[in-house]
């Protein structure tokens, strides 16, 4: 398994991993990244200052990814952990946790003090992993992600 920064040729494969995973868990609903047009242009999205995206490759195939994004209107020093998805054939290997930890390390090294994330009940396995690495639940969203289909909000100090 190789983890590397996103490249311009990764867009289509990443969009497929993300949308396939959301459909598998019944989370392919309006107000989520499933319908977000930026899902098809992640390389371009992650050219934004203060952002970074890691891609996991196995056997020359994209099998997952995770990133950090300076979502609009988040508190000072806070970034958002975004688009953490792993293809079915790579789940259960610790890859998701590895991608998340690498992303949070990047965030800390780049001056962020807190990481925020949004999720949904359909992704309860992911939510349990977030809790295990120290994310605490919030009773309201932060910032302006544009994903009003998410109703789980969490925050972690770095």
UniProtKB/TrEMBL annotation:
<dbReference type="Pfam" id="PF00583">
    <property type="entry name" value="Acetyltransf_1"/>
</dbReference>
<feature type="domain" description="N-acetyltransferase">
    <location>
        <begin position="1"/>
        <end position="158"/>
    </location>
</feature>
<keyword id="KW-0012">Acyltransferase</keyword>
<keyword id="KW-0808">Transferase</keyword>
<protein>
    <submittedName>
        <fullName>GNAT family N-acetyltransferase</fullName>
    </submittedName>
</protein>
<dbReference type="InterPro" id="IPR016181">
    <property type="entry name" value="Acyl_CoA_acyltransferase"/>
</dbReference>
<dbReference type="InterPro" id="IPR000182">
    <property type="entry name" value="GNAT_dom"/>
</dbReference>
<dbReference type="InterPro" id="IPR050832">
    <property type="entry name" value="Bact_Acetyltransf"/>
</dbReference>
């Amino acid at each position: 398994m190789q983890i590397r920064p996103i490249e311009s040729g990764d867009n289509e494969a990443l969009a497929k991993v993300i949308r396939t995973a959301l459909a598998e868990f019944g989370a392919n609903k309006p107000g989520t990244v499933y319908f977000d047009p930026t899902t098809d242009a992640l390389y371009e999205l992650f050219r934004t200052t203060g952002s970074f995206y890691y891609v996991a490759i196995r056997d020359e195939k994209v099998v997952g990814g995770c990133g950090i994004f300076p979502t609009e209107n988040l508190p000072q020093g806070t970034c958002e952990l975004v688009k953490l998805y792993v293809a079915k054939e790579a789940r259960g290997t610790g890859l998701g946790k590895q991608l998340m930890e690498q992303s949070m390390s990047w965030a800390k090294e780049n001056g962020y003090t807190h990481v925020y994330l949004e999720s949904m009940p359909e992704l309860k396995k992911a939510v349990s992993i977030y809790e295990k690495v120290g994310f605490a639940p919030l009773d309201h969203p932060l910032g302006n992600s544009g994903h009003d289909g998410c109703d789980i909000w969490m925050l972690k100090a770095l």
